[in-house]
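Hello Y.,

Per our agreement to keep a running log of every chain we model this quarter, I'm adding this entry. I've kept the format consistent with earlier entries: sequence first, then predicted structure.
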Amino acid sequence: MNCNDWIAGFLASDPPRSKSLVVTIFGDAIVPHGGMVWLGSLIELLAPFGVNDRLLRTAVFRLAQEGWLGAQRDGRRSSYAITAPAMARFVHAYRRIYAPLNVHWDGSWTLVLNGDGALNAAERSAVRKELLWEGYSVIAPGIMGHPAADGPALDELLKRLGVDGKLYVVQGKAMRQVSGRPLSELVAAGWDVSGVAQGYQHFIAQFGPLLAAVQAAVADGGLAPQQAYVIRTLLIHAYRRVQLHDPQLPVELLPTPWPGALAYELTRAIYLAVFAAAEQHIDTTLRREDPSAPAAEPAFFDRFGGLA
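Predicted structure for the entry above:
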């Protein structure tokens, strides 16, 4: 199987949804180039996936309604950019995607408590939704926790929701002098990672054959820029769908072997093989409408532990 056969088979069997694909392309390809794109270039970037002009316009309209994208007009041309409030969420989410799976457990838990009912119903619902998305679990009524919380990300989340200073946020460990249950048992009670594991296994089954095809193409002279871009986009789109459901538990608290580790290494290997050629296509496409479109920012090359 060559790369074109794999792409055609993937798009026929598991075509990405337009709106979700736009989010993937913004996060993976447009944010590193300044976060803004003209509509004509965006149409060109979506075309290889079978997304036509009408579907794209509908997708960006809905993303704008939801506060993810902002639109501007210059005469008859339109451009779209990540809004300032959404940019922090994009950066955090995509940092998770490209970061190595090396979170270790120090034996502590971070707990978020709504002890005295300081939040109203809408605030409680928003906090619960966002913390679940961040991988937290409901430990008990009014208490959510995680064994490897990202402190700055939690602080940004609470500030964004306008509830900073309204909740108790504590970090605790088991007391050695007390014969209590191991805190590690909270994982089994709070998370069912079997679905995430199955998602990773499905991803590996889909993209394992692609790695061999990419390696063969590179050995035979390399990939065409658009071909590399399509592979990179489908790769990150599929990996993102699984990885963002992963609660990011420390490696010591995960089943062994954990398929997420193999999925990460597979994603990294394919990304490293195609990213440079894909960047050629992205640069060319963005600069067709905007000759001053910036090259990828230096932070882009830190992805997956370093792209050099």
